[in-house]
């Protein structure tokens, strides 16, 4: 008798070092905790420019959402699903004009990207398109944009 076994390998990501819990994710301020990816976030739907977006997050003792991997990207997409079909949100990531290297607010280099490459992104223009944006209408793909543009804000608290 021949027995054939098939094994399916499923890799689960467990964020055992996650220090966020209900006491550090202020639900009273409208923040939501996604434990699977250790993501405490809030979506502000009033459109702001980049500098105002950063200040809004800082006022909550947070920062713009830092999308560092595909799981965080999926969590962001889920957060934006219930928002207007035209939702466009600032996320962490800036570059110096003329550079193709992107950095988070703390100076760490961004290594995960979800560029809208079919749409010609990133453009890396030298005229100020130095900030990251997620466009729901483009399949949640990333775009480099100007800081004066008005978009919704996704903050996170770590």
TrEMBL record:
Residues 40-156 form the C-type lectin domain. It holds the Pfam family Lectin_C. SUPFAM superfamilies: C-type lectin-like (SSF56436). InterPro entries: C-type_lectin-like, C-type_lectin-like/link_sf, Ca-Dep_Lectins_ImmuneDev, CTDL_fold. Transmembrane segments: none annotated. Residues 1-16 form the signal peptide. PROSITE patterns: C_TYPE_LECTIN_2. Keywords: Signal. This is C-type lectin domain-containing protein.
């Amino acid at each position: 008798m021949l027995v054939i076994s098939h094994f399916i390998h499923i890799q689960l990501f467990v964020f055992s070092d996650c220090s966020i819990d209900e006491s550090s994710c202020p639900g009273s301020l409208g923040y939501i905790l996604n434990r699977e990816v250790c993501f405490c976030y809030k979506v502000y739907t009033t459109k702001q420019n980049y500098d105002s977006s950063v200040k809004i997050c800082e006022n909550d003792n947070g920062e713009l959402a830092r999308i560092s991997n595909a799981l965080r990207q999926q969590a962001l997409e889920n957060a934006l699903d219930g928002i207007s079909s035209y939702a466009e949100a600032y996320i962490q990531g800036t570059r110096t004009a003329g550079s193709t290297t992107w950095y988070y607010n703390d100076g760490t280099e961004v290594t995960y990207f979800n560029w809208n490459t079919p749409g010609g992104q990133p453009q890396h223009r030298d005229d100020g398109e130095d900030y990251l944006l997620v466009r729901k209408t483009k399949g949640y793909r990333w775009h480099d944009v100007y800081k004066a543009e008005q978009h919704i804000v996704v903050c996170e608290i770590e």
